[in-house]
């Protein structure tokens, strides 16, 4: 999914394509498809650096169903399942 830099449309990081660059707005783990509870998923994401205002970039996608993805959050690179990335709302 490419994004118009002049648009303020919020999307879930799990829907973004390789090369996406954006900023984290908030976490919303209620409907992600993750096996973790929403509270546990949000806690893990925060511990990994997925916090409001952080810059995110999708660096790589897996070959099978584009999963997992490699995401740079500020200066850290993290591998994440797309179902978990669905909890991250970005612009």
From TrEMBL:
Ranges in coiled-coil conformation? none
Superkingdom classification of source: Bacteria
> Would I find Phosphoprotein among this entry's keywords?
no
Q: Where is the Ferrous iron transporter FeoA-like domain?
A: 11-91
SMART domains per the UniProt record, alphabetical: FeoA
Give UniProt keywords alphabetically: Iron
What one GO molecular function would you report for this record?
Answer: transition metal ion binding
Output this protein's name: Iron transporter FeoA
């Amino acid at each position: 999914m490419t994004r118009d830099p002049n648009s303020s449309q919020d999307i879930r990081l799990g829907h973004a394509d390789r090369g996406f660059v954006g900023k984290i707005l908030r976490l919303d783990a209620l409907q992600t498809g993750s096996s973790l509870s929403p509270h546990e998923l949000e806690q893990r994401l925060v511990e990994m650096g997925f916090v409001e205002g952080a810059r995110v970039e999708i660096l790589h996608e897996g070959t099978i169903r584009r999963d997992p993805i490699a995401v740079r959050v500020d200066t850290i690179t993290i591998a994440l399942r797309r179902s978990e990335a669905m909890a991250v709302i970005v612009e």
